[in-house]
Input
Amino acid sequence: MDPYAYHVLVCVGGFCSPDQKGRELYRMLPSLLQREGLLFGPDRVKRGETPCLGVCSGGPIVVVYPDGVWYGGVTPALLERIVVEHLRGGRVVDEAVFHRI
Ligand code: FES
Output
């Protein structure tokens, strides 16, 4: 498998976000990553959806590895900031972080 810079997991479950807004976020990811040049090459970002991350409140939740940064209450606008500032720029969006490994 080719290397990648980050792995992003989006919770699409119905407990942390009862309206399942994580699904909308996950659908948005490919076009945001493509726009920012993060779908191919050494800076590419691998993405995945998960039914639960074991937190089950304060979602939607988005996790970025290898940084071990957990974002909560992610809106479409915040997801765009995560892609631009964190995944492309390497700067964590600190005000949206609720947990770090
Ligand atoms: S349903 Fe999202 S963390 Fe459990």
